[in-house]
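Re: weekly structure request thread

Next one in the queue (368 aa):
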Amino acid sequence: MGCGNFFFTLVITFSVALITYNIIISANAPLKQEFPGPSNPSSSSTSRGFISVDPIIKMPLDRSRTSAAKKRLFHTAVTSSDSVYNTWQCRIMYYWFKKFKDGPNSEMGGFTRILHSGKPDKFMDEIPTFVAKQLPAGLDQGYIVLNRPWAFVQWLQQADIKEDYILMSEPDHIIVKPIPNLSKDGLGAAFPFFYIEPKKYETILRKFFPEDKGPITNIDPIGNSPVIVGKESLKKIAPTWMNMSLAMKKDPEADKAFGWVLEMYAYAVASALHDVGNILYKDFMLQPPWDTEIGKKFIIHYTYGCDYDMKGKLTYGKIGEWRFDKRSYDSVWPPRNLPLPPPGVPESVVTLVKMVNEATANIPNWGS
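Done, posted below.
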């Protein structure tokens, strides 16, 4: 047996042991459902951002005539800590989810905030929430994102999920129109990230993706979010994703190469190991300020800071006279009625601020 095969077998064996151990020590998590610029590498946010522009990847998908009888509902799941930073984002995200859930062509089903703090918070009645246990102390090695795959493993094992598909989303996503089920023919639907480059890191990835699993191009340039994937497929992928994340974090070469997006690579590899391919759907989301128009996009991902002078000129890398950056509110609630951008600022940024303002104006007890 080759070295790669031996490592993969070891990872899977460790996966079973770790999951079994954690299920034994974890009490049943409380469950409440309705049938949920650049990143600073030292930030505790689970979002990422990089300076560049994604390649255009088009896939022909016709979802314009979704009849009620043929709906393929998906459940939206958002992982979150109990920090102020994640919480205000989740409240805004859920507000817009409810606004578009029953819109034309929507195949949006239920919603769950997967809260990986290990304890309930005071927003359980506002947002359908599943409380997941955190990883044992020290296991994340300071990389808080490792709690995400472990939280998904618990949720998929313990929750009663009615839908056959899952949309994995994040707190800093705002839905801008009803979302149909973009997956097709057993493939997931995922947003392609320009900075996930399996070919570039083939030597490292072969430690985790043996050659007998096929070419390195079988690993899609994706993270786990946004992704729409079959529930049964995700139940298989999630434990491997969790243990692949832990294994990569413990590997000095992989940890150094992948950095803050390590868990994204782990999901991409886990998906490929289980032969779940993905439609690379560029119109899944937009990322202001680099994407300037809403167009056919379904989600605004506000991971980058938006800085402009009062003439509407982007001043990226320099704090603008007008700005919106989620990191300005890492420990405080954004105020209601944020000032709108000056004339000349792109539609995407104007829409983002207007949608934040509408949500905060209508969510009860905002800022409490």
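The longest strand covers residues 108-115. The radius of gyration is 20 Å.
Next request, please.
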